[in-house]
Structures are given as structure tokens and as C-alpha cells.
């Protein structure tokens, strides 16, 4: 059994964070474990509050799991503060060999709540980028990391190269925020680019898509897939999850992490 670890915050509504990560791992045939960095108060409409877990507890969650179980990939999601970032870096730096780390630099919720404190951005780059095999920013996150707006595919390619220069070995710049009839992601492995283009799905039920996509990449890399192949398969998975998303709650509903398993079992996907 291949194993992946998510280091992220808890989403009380179940659509994002560690809940989304663990569902994605399970859907893709990987056993999921978690180190919780924070508990959020949120629903489909917005994030209301965050309570961080003590950094030493986060550190020790990671260390005790690696001491016990072979882990084949790590996904890092919401890490809101410098002490948490430093604690995670200390724990992972001690792991040899370190499995592929997929870092999703979560900064702001859909409702505008800051999930990464502004003074922690530099610490994220300094401590966690060098440990990451893949970094997966969306356009606003890439722009915040680089201090500029990104308005087109050429800008996304430049951003991917510049983020790689910050220490990340491989980069996926997600293009969903560009608008238009299609959504294009830019993949960069440190030498070559690849573009992934999909038609845009007309739905507001996209809660947790970033978490799900990055954890799908982690799952496929845990299964031994190369960077490009893992991202391509993760893109297929997240597209299906969005196409079959749930209209739950009064805001943005969650994606359907088990759409394919439901379909194979003859169950109603919707």
C-alpha cells in the first residue's frame, strides 16, 4: 500500500483542507495520513476563524508518522504562520530520504480570509520551497509570491520560471483565474514547459479544488508517476470531480472526490 501524508488545516465543511486531501488519497488508491496545522471555522460560504495548532504538536505529528510508516509523498497545504512553517521545515529536513513534497501555497480563501499571514510569505519561500518537489500556486498566489500581476500564458511561464528560481524544483501555475472559455495550467520541470488546457466548467461548486488538485498530484507521485504524468492524471481527476460537484449549502459546494468509484459501483454520481 502506498502512503501519502497531508500537512494542512481542517475544513469543518469537509470540502477542502485535510478532509479533501484524505478523500482524494483514498479515491486514488493511496492510504492517507494527516498532520493538522489548524482548525478552521468555515462552511460553503466563508471562513470565519482559524485556531492554529501548537507548532511543537505539528512537528511531532510529522515525526511520529515517519518513525512508524513508510511515506511515499507529502502534501503541504495551509500553514498560516512563521512558527508553523519553521516547525514543518525542521521535521521534514530530518527525513532522509525525503519523499516527493507537493506544496500548495494557500494564501487567501474564496471569501477573502487570509490563510497565510503576510509576514509568513518569505518564510514559506525560504524554508519550504527548497524541500518541495512541486509547488502549485494559482494566479493570485503566484502574483503575491512574485509581487506582480500575471495576465496571460506568457506571464504564467515567466512566473513558473521565477518561482522555480526561488527554490521549487517543479512548478504548476494554475490558470483558472484567467477567465475565458478554457482553463490552462502551465507546468515547468525546471527545463521544459507543458500546457494543460481544459474547457471551463460552468459551476460555482468549486470549494476545495486547489487542495484536491495538489493532493491528487501527491497521490500519483506516491504511486511512482513522473511529474508530468502525475499532473496530467491529477488534472483529469479534478476535472471529473468538478463536473460532478455537489450543490451543497448556500455558497460554493464541494467537488465530488469519489465520482469515479460511485459510477463504477452503479451509484448515482449526483
| Range of helix content | 25-40%
CATH superfamily placement: Ribokinase
Query: What is the level-2 CATH architecture name?
Result: 3-Layer(aba) Sandwich
CATH fold label: UDP-N-acetylmuramoyl-L-alanine:D-glutamate ligase
Contiguous helical run count: 9
Highest CATH level, the class? Alpha Beta
Distance between the termini: 30 Å
Low-confidence stretches: none
The multimeric state of the shown protein is: single chain
Q: What number of structural domains do the residues give?
A: 1
Write down the Rg: 17 Å
Strand order of the largest sheet: 3-2-1-4-5-6-7-8-9
What pattern of helices and strands is seen along the backbone? EHEEHEHEHEHHEEEHHH
Largest sheet: 9 strands, mixed
Structural class assignment: alpha/beta
Query: How many β-strand runs?
Result: 9
Shape: globular
Report the mean per-residue pLDDT as an integer.
Answer: 93
Strand content: 15-25%
Helix/strand layout:
Blueprint: E1 3-10, H1 17-27, E2 31-42, E3 47-52, H2 55-68, E4 73-76, H3 82-93, E5 101-103, H4 121-128, E6 134-135, H5 139-146, H6 153-165, E7 170-173, E8 182-188, E9 193-199, H7 209-222, H8 227-243, H9 259-264
Characterization of the model:
It is a single chain. With 270 residues, this protein is an alpha/beta fold. The protein has a single domain, classed as Ribokinase (UDP-N-acetylmuramoyl-L-alanine:D-glutamate ligase), CATH 3.40.1190.20. It is built from nine helices and nine strands. A nine-stranded mixed sheet has the order 3-2-1-4-5-6-7-8-9, sandwiched between helices.
Amino acid at each position: 500500500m502506498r502512503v501519502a501524508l497531508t500537512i494542512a488545516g481542517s475544513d469543518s465543511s469537509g470540502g477542502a483542507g485535510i478532509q479533501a486531501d484524505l478523500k482524494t488519497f483514498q479515491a486514488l488508491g493511496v492510504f492517507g495520513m494527516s498532520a493538522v496545522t489548524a482548525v478552521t471555522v468555515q462552511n460553503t460560504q466563508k471562513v470565519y476563524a482559524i485556531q492554529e495548532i501548537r507548532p511543537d504538536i505539528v512537528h511531532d505529528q510529522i515525526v511520529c508518522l515517519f518513525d512508524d510508516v513508510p511515506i511515499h509523498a507529502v502534501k503541504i497545504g495551509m500553514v498560516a504562520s512563521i512558527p508553523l512553517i519553521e516547525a514543518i521545515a525542521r521535521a521534514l529536513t530530518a527525513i532522509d530520504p525525503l519523499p516527493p513534497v507537493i506544496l500548495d501555497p494557500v494564501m487567501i480563501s474564496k471569501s477573502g480570509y487570509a490563510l497565510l499571514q503576510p509576514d509568513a510569505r518569505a518564510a514559506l519561500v525560504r524554508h519550504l520551497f527548497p524541500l518541495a518537489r512541486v509547488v502549485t500556486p494559482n494566479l493570485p498566489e503566484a502574483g503575491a509570491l512574485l509581487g506582480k500581476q500575471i495576465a496571460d500564458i506568457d506571464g504564467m511561464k515567466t512566473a513558473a520560471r521565477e518561482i522555480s528560481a526561488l527554490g521549487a524544483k517543479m512548478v504548476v501555475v494554475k490558470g483558472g483565474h484567467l477567465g475565458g472559455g478554457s482553463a490552462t495550467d502551465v507546468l515547468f520541470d525546471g527545463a521544459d514547459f507543458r500546457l494543460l488546457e481544459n474547457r471551463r466548467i460552468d459551476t460555482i461548486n468549486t470549494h476545495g479544488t486547489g487542495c484536491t488538485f495538489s493532493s491528487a498530484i501527491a497521490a500519483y507521485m506516491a504511486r511512482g508517476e513522473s511529474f508530468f504524468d502525475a499532473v496530467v492524471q491529477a488534472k483529469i481527476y479534478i476535472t471529473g470531480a468538478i463536473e460532478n460537484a455537489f450543490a451543497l449549502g448556500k455558497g460554493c459546494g464541494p467537488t465530488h472526490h469519489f465520482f469515479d468509484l460511485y459510477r463504477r459501483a452503479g451509484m448515482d454520481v449526483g
